[in-house]
Amino acid sequence: MTFEGVEASPLLSVRGLSKLFGSFAACDAIDLDIGHGEIHALLGENGAGKSTLVKMLFGVLQPTAGTISWEGRPVVIPSPGEARRLGVGMVFQHFSLFEALTVAENIALSLDPRTPLAKIAEETATVSKAYGLPLDPSAHVADLSVGERQRIEIIRALLQNPKLIILDEPTSVLTPQEAERLFETLMRLKAEGRSVLYISHRLEEVQRICDRATVLRHGKVTGDCDPRKETPASLARMMVGTEVAEVQRADAGAFGDVLVEVAKVSVAPRTPFAVSLKDISLKVRAGEVLAIAGVAGNGQSELFDALSGEYPISDDDGIRLRGKPVGRLRINGRRLLGAGFVPEERHGHAAVSALSLSDNLLLARSRSDKKAFLAGGPLSILRRDAILSASRRICSIMDVRKSGDDPAAGSLSGGNLQKFIVGRELDRQPSVLVVNQPTWGVDAGAASRIRQALVDLAKAGSAVIVISQDLDEIFEIATTIAVISDGKLSDPYPAGELTLEQIGLLMGGIHERHSGVETAHAH
Amino acid sequence: MFEAILLTVITASTPLVVAALGELVSQRSGVLNLGVEGMMIMGAVAAFATAQLTGSPYLGILGGIIGGGLFSLLFGFLTLTLVANQVATGLALTILGLGLSGQIGEAFVGMPGVRLQPLVIPVLSDIPFFGRVLFSQDLIFYMSVALVFGISWFLFKSRTGLKMRAIGDNHGSAHALGINVVRTRYLAVLFGGACAGLAGAQLSLVYTPQWVENMTAGRGWIALALVVFASWRPLRVLAGGYLFGAVGIGQLHAQLLAQSGGIAIPSQLLSALPYAATIVVLIIISHNRRTTLINTPASLGKPFVPDR
Amino acid sequence: MRIELQKRANTSTLFSILSPLLALALTLVAGAIMFGLLGKSPLGALYIYFVEPLLDVWSLHELAIKAAPLILIAVGLSICFRSNNWNIGAEGQFTIGAITGSILPVLNPEWHSPLILPLMLVMGMIGGALYAGIPALLKTRFNTNEILTSLMLVYIAQLFLDWLVRGPWRDPQGYNFPQTKSFQPEAVLPEILDSGRAHLGIIFALIAAVALWFMMRFMLKGFQVSVLGQSERAGRFAGFSARRMVWFSMLLSGALAGLAGISEVSGSIGHVQPVISPGYGFTAIIVAFLGRLNPLGIIASGFVLALTYLGGEAAQLSLSISDKVSRVFQGLILFFVLSCDTLIHYRIRLIFNPSTAQEGKR
Questions:
Q1: How many Å lie between the alpha carbon of C70 and the closest alpha carbon of chain A?
Q2: C327: Cβ–Cβ under 8 A, 6 or more apart, which residues?
Q3: C146-166 helix and C90-107 helix, angle to the nearest 10 degrees
Q4: Which residue of B has its CA nearest to A81?
């Protein structure tokens, strides 16, 4: 497929596009040009306005101002259906898939309603073969891995024969090897003359595969460049604005006593959608930061549940905190032994959005700080002033930006709320801290502050477990790295001894230390 | 004797099946409408009034469908447009329906009703036993059977049904795909209301052709339980509806038997049986958490506000 | 035209106060229209319905008598609803409380001890709590939906009461009326003022409301209720047990409904009969929502709903309108409250341009 004759005008041209949510400008007068057969990167931090921009291009959101031109003609894109008719396909970051439906049914939903389901299944098989994306059309989505789910999205977009495919953070859920295969697919699309809008915050990827890059910050365009001619540092500056403080690592080697010990813990899945934990063992010593890498949905939250005691395990000796068996102890019992916990999901797990910050402080510490926060003996009367002043202290130490003295947690940005949630635990100076995805969806400034705080805690003699999907983060703060895959945890490796590639192999489930990782060395 | 009992079971089961089917469609789209009882009684009074005023039971059926449907739009407006809590709004619908129907029906208390006569289907009704049981019934019975198969086909074979299931599974994704969540849910709620209204019409035109205040007597709630019992599948609604209907009729016959045999079983105990049976069935069904989790439409009862 | 909602960053304090008042105003407007349709003078009818009952001492006492069970039940329900436990079977718990509370006077009509009344009240509370314990047990043990089970139990309780007063508890000297003997004087809840019939029930209601307000506002227990109600997962993270909250809220609301039941029977009826409640257990759901699930707000809304009962009776007498109209009013109030509550969390915009291309409109 070629587009000779129209090469003069870009495929897509956006001028002055803005989107206001109330008085907040998520996108502010954005200009963007995408040429035919071009892989165009859209770079920016979380909250820079990338998602809002592509939602407008795909007709999910309506712009407040500005114009969109398609092949030289101005267009209005009122709905995703219209976007598809124009030739825009979209692969969402948070997949817009239906777990209860089959692959073919999922694909059918975005196609011409007159196409019979059997034909769709057939075409799915054809396309999946042609692009090297194996998929069973009759499988239920609930049973598929994250990588397979992404394939559905890509095939769904391809079946509409689009001229432009938008991919929103596609590699954030993939192993390095899966990402490699995705890049091959993208190159094939480019060779066919299709254009790709590639949204990412990973500079290295963008420099490898993209022809042009548009950089967004706070809803505005801060750069339009050829990424191959830039350095990672110059791109980062466009993204972040200022230089982000580099995290000072803890030194490996100088570890103290074992503070957390997990011995051969297996946990059956609690719900039909959960992963079972299989024979998990780990040890974390004072001063150590153990990072657990892995692709989402491989047992991370189940491991967190077991470690935190939100769902205690049956074997009391399976988990030891500072030498004491705690397997059957609940979360507050473990907190009383000096442990602190930061779950992945901020809203509705680590915090209650509608409650104030001080209430959310009490949420994690009503038992451990009973003396300070409660009065009246069995009546358990709340000491509001004590709670409020502790909450203020945390906000000032962690630099939590908020409107008002004690606003609802839901009114804070992701980064600020996360700083508060982490600060809430650090304030207790826990001897053990377990954190799940500490900087997921958090801006670079807050992320760097949180990472530094975790490293400092370890330096001060605590044991820290960080469960994270973000490999950059892991290399930045970990002293020891293990990988979780399908509910199994690999052996731990000192951070300095592992390469990205080796972690990738472990993520793919290759566990034998002497086969998998050694082979990787041979490269 | 057996045939007579079977006929009464069918009459008692039809309203349960019809109301539950409507609620099933509504819940498949992700809307939990607890106002079935209210929509049903509004349908009952509307059907009775229409039949009284026009003399035609068929217009009465239409009146019941329209009455229940219009009433459900009130629920739709609150929960879909104003995003009010679905549980509370459903209760409000039931309370208002019981009050309003009492007010409207005041004029009709004690009047003899217009009974919907059976439609005997030629030839088929001559089949021994089955002919009389299945092909000499009233229109609402035929409609209930048609609804079971029609809804099965709609949900699992049609593209609109697929969209509806998609919305019930994940309304955010459905919206992102460009499916109109709110409009589809309005239609599902409206359909649920129309079915509840039809079920109410069956009560006031067939089951007991007269107007009695609160004549639904909890059938709307039993229909709700039936949807859970059927794990959101139309054919199982049919089976479950007849099971519940049989319990209701069984207790009536037990009362007669006990009386004639001189055994003193309190009538209240037998009257409580359908409600007790509902509880028992709910326990058995929900006991297996896993199957409930898999079958329940994932976005059921959750509020949806489209961002744009 | 279409309506668009925009989420507020913080809930609006102004509208949390204004919403119930706005709802009442809308109910009055709807009521005026309804009276107009019935061929009555709208303002005159509203006056008879909502103002006249407030003008003499006798009806003020009646107001307190009717508000008492509504407030007692509703404050219990507010704890349930806030913790996301949907007990809608308070009518049944009320009935069972009335029955268990009446065991002593019915079976021992000759027992003239000052102990009898406190014992009756305690037994009424225990009965109501145990009956609410059934849906709690089924929810915690079998994961059974409490909405349906608690409601089914209402029908069963009412049939049980019917059987009792027509069977074993019937007064043999009662001219075949299905009711028990009148309670002995020691078993009757005392009146609080000489001027009328209002009994201790309203005092119980006020004490319960203030106590639960204190709990919700100042105690860790109240904090647990709101956390678990908004997010069970966050509650688990805090170390609060959702299962125990099911028990706590259901038993508490059951006990209060039971207390309301025995107070009603002992205070205003004086014996047990087949029908002892004009639907207090269901009306209390409206009371709870109109009071914005706040125990102090519920005191006010309890009186408002009590007024709809009295107004209904007055309208029946002076306007010859059926007393069903009070049920209609109650339903309307709940509808308008739920609609107006949207304003607390969302800004509402009306959009008039009929842009045909936009999807998602209704």
A1: 27
A2: B95, B96, B98, B99, B100, B102, B103, C279, C312
A3: 30
A4: B178
A378 inside 8 A of chain C by CB: no
The letter for the amino acid at A405 is D
Where does CATH 3.40.50.300 sit in chain A?
12-240, 258-522
Instruction: Spell out the domain ranges in chain C.
Output: 2-351
DSSP SS3 for C214: helix
CATH number belonging to the domain at C2-351, selected among 1.10.357, 1.10.3470, 1.10.8, 3.30.930: 1.10.3470
Contact B92 C156 (CB under 8 A): no
Count the neighbouring beta carbons within 10 Å of the beta carbon of residue A268. Answer: 9
Q: Which residues in chain B are closer than 8 Å to C88, comparing Cβ atoms?
A: 91
Nearest CB among B92, B175, B286 relative to C142 is that of B286
* CATH number 3.40.50.300 is the correct assignment for the domain at A258-522: yes
User: Looking at the domain assignment, is residue B274 inside a domain?
Assistant: yes
Strand partners, A433: A340, A464
Return residues 113-132 of B near C (CB < 8 Å): none
Q: How far is CA C320 from CA A312, B45, C306, C313, in A?
A: 65, 21, 20, 10
Kindly report the CATH number assigned to the domain that includes residue B61: 1.10.3470
- A105/B307 touch (CB, cutoff 8 Å), yes or no: no
Q: How close is the nearest chain A Cα to the Cα of C7, in Å?
A: 10
Residue ranges making up the domain that contains B191: 2-295
pLDDT tens series, chain A, 523 aa: 444 444 568 899 999 999 987 777 889 999 999 999 999 999 887 778 888 899 899 988 899 999 999 998 999 999 888 898 899 998 877 667 898 899 999 999 888 778 888 888 888 888 888 877 788 888 888 888 777 888 888 888 888 889 999 998 887 777 777 788 888 889 988 999 999 999 887 778 888 899 999 998 888 898 888 988 888 778 877 877 765 666 666 666 678 899 999 999 999 988 777 889 999 999 999 999 999 998 878 899 999 999 999 999 999 999 999 999 999 999 999 999 999 999 999 999 999 999 999 999 999 999 999 999 999 888 999 999 999 999 999 999 998 988 888 999 988 888 899 999 999 999 999 999 999 999 887 877 888 899 999 999 999 999 999 999 888 888 889 999 999 988 999 999 998 888 877 887 888 766 544 443 433 343 3
Which CATH code is given to the segment(s) A12-240? 3.40.50.300
Neighbours of chain C (3+ CB pairs under 8 A): A, B
Q: How many domains does one find in chain B?
A: 1
The sign of the torsion formed by the CA atoms of B304, B307, C3, C6 equals: positive
